[in-house]
Amino acid sequence: MDISESGPCVLCNKPSTAGCLDCNDLLYCSEACLLADKPHHALLCHSFSQNPPTSTTGNRHVRAFSFPADTTEPKLVWVPVSGFADPDTGISFQEADIVQFFPPTVVPQTLHAERNSVRHRESNSMLEIWHTAAQAGSANRCIESLAKGKEGDGLFYDWKGGVLVLAMTRPTGFMVDPGAYKNAQARDFRDAVDFLVDYGNTAHAQSVRETLNTLGASTSTAERSNRSYEPYGVTGMGSIVSEME
């Protein structure tokens, strides 16, 4: 790993001085941060080293993260993707084939996140989170296990059923560059874990509401809800802010 061309520490954002020698995919500023991140990183470190992006040919599959409901360990998985070009504009769009990761009786929903509000930084990629909301009855044991040991030792949101997280490039505009799927990296896994464990944190929702209130008292609750997490790069959180009104 070439530290001279490295980014910040995955945990605290300070300049990095060392990295994981097993997967060569994560950077840290100190041994303390490396050890603090180890319980989560160790879950997929070996999988990253054994499944490099060149494991599949072309761009027909991308690496992603599966958080199964019935086990305590996440998985690094390959998700099929297909693309097509709009005949009028020539703009390319992609679609991920996620059917195999969810029961046929449920229709998964999506969330998108571009910022890690736990680490107070932009996320490594735009994350696309597929989940079953309240349609699946069983609690997600995998995400529950990720929350153990954090302050409060629990989740803010009751995740049900399996969850699939894909990494994407950031779109510059739907009719210019809608973004594209890419192979998820270890840093994306850190961002995904932080998002899933912190999702529904009303302390963050309160902060967003106070920010939106400064835009003017005439802004309706519905309008504020629709824009609720724009400052954090997250969509799909409007209901949390609405409940606090």
Structure description:
- There is one protein chain.
- This protein is of the alpha+beta class and 245 residues long.
- The protein has three domains: 1-42, no CATH class; 55-199, no CATH class; 201-245.
- 25% of the residues lie in helices and 23% in strands.
- It is built from seven helices and ten strands.
- The strands form two sheets. Strands 3, 4, 5, 6, 7, 8, 9 and 10 form an eight-stranded antiparallel sheet that branches. A two-stranded antiparallel sheet has the order 1-2.
- A hairpin with a 6-residue loop joins strand 4 and strand 5.
- The relative contact order is 0.15.
- Residues 1-5 and 215-245 have low confidence and may be disordered.
- It comes from Immersiella caudata.
- This is MYND-type domain-containing protein.
- Keywords: Metal-binding, Zinc, Zinc-finger.
Q: Quick check: average pLDDT? A: 78
Helical amount among residues, as a percent range? 10-25%
- Quick one: biggest sheet? 8 strands, antiparallel
Radius of gyration: 19 Å
Global shape: globular
Instruction: Work out the number of β strands.
Output: 10
Name the beta content range: 15-25%
Structural class: alpha+beta
Count of helix runs? 7
* End-to-end CA span: 49 Å
User: Which stretches are poorly predicted, pLDDT < 50 over at least 5 residues?
Assistant: 1-5, 215-245
